[in-house]
Amino acid sequence: MTETNILPEVIEAPVSGYDAFSLETLHDVHTFDGEQREIAPVVYMEKYGYYAITRYAEIQKALRDWRTFSSTDRPFYAPSAFRPRTLILEDPPEHTASKSAVFKVFDAGNLAKMSAYFKAEAERLIDDLLTDGPAEINAYNDLSVKYVLKVFPDVLGLPEEGRELLLKFGDAVFNVFGPPSELQAAKLASGTEAMEWVESNTARNVQSEGGIGWQLYAMADEGKISEHTAQQILKSIFAAGFDTTTASIASMIRAFADNPGEWQKLRENPDLVDNAWEEAIRLYPASRYGGRWATKETVLGGVRIPEGAKILTMWLGAGRDPRQYDAPDEFRVDRDLKNAHLSFGFGIHTCAGNQVARLEARTLLRAMVERIEKIELIGEPRKTVNYQAFGHDYVPVRLTPAVSA
Ligand code: HEM
């Protein structure tokens, strides 16, 4: 018998005592999720009775097959006011209609309008920061939050007052899919403050004519989606569109502060801006995992997954899978990302706002590269502690302005 005739061996998922949600884990998710990745492509987390897909290739393979790896249920799923019941909790055909509605409001025409506005605001913000020469700032609050909470809510037509509640809302949303704990209770309590604001700012009657929300309700009038779905989609944008970008832009600045040589490389070759941003979110994804359930028994990476299994797709760990990337812990602005990364997910549920997130981040980075000579760390950065979201909420840096020609 030749080797090609040997059927691949199918094994049961290695049983792991891993607690993906303990405080110890949450303080160092890259190390701990990375350890699980090195055990097997799929592990069984005994403590919670859930499966975790840990490696790049297997996550990608699973997410190509939405019929087997359905999104309509997931570990720790319980209906929650913090989880808008649309898109991420839908499979086709419902999902197709909702996703088309989002793509329609983020079409080329709307993105082009956003692009010009984001650029003007990014440049203004950096110029303001550097008016008096070198600036010592917390890159999270003074740069990332300031920029994101200005440009995207403006585009959505949201009032100035209360915008910071979007971050509390997002922080709660990203703590829903995990076990009850003090941490979860605190995040949900804090998010509750945001609920009324979110509810009233996603209502039909407050949407400014021609704005994103108005366009969604117009689609409801045309019968393309329901009125309820229009509001749920708007809530999804509120839920997923702020914590993610603020955290990952702060993480990107940390990556540059840790690697001054990479900043110089980018200054010398600004064409690398887009690639540098993708590399930053490969290294520091804003979302640690997704959730699915197996609609039938299946085998992934040689590991059996039973019908009905609830599954975490651990894309933060997969972003540093050495089977996919050379020297995966290193930040290299010119890395050949080949198949990109999983930080925006993969398959039919790929991030619906990825174009907006990319536009925001790349535009800011371009404005920075043109204006900033040096980014230096002047203190210890702090990572966020959250079940599902990952990022930095404190990145103390000194920005030295470039001497203009
Ligand atoms: C750097 C910023 C962002 C990151 C890293 C990110 C990451 C992700 C990931 C990993 C998923 C897939 C979830 C899954 O398959 O389980 C996702 C889905 C989603 N994201 Fe984002 N996101 C970002 C920004 C945004 C923004 C700005 C918006 C809105 C404008 C947004 C809206 C959504 C929505 C609505 C979904 C659900 C898509 C679907 O189910 O088809 N995200 N995002």
TrEMBL record:
InterPro entries: Cyt_P450 (IPR001128), Cyt_P450_CS (IPR017972), Cyt_P450_E_grp-I (IPR002401), Cyt_P450_sf (IPR036396). Keywords: Heme, Iron, Metal-binding, Monooxygenase, Oxidoreductase. PROSITE patterns: CYTOCHROME_P450. It holds the Pfam family p450. Coiled coil: none annotated. It comes from the Bacteria. Belongs to the cytochrome P450 family. This is Cytochrome P450. It comes from Arthrobacter ginsengisoli.
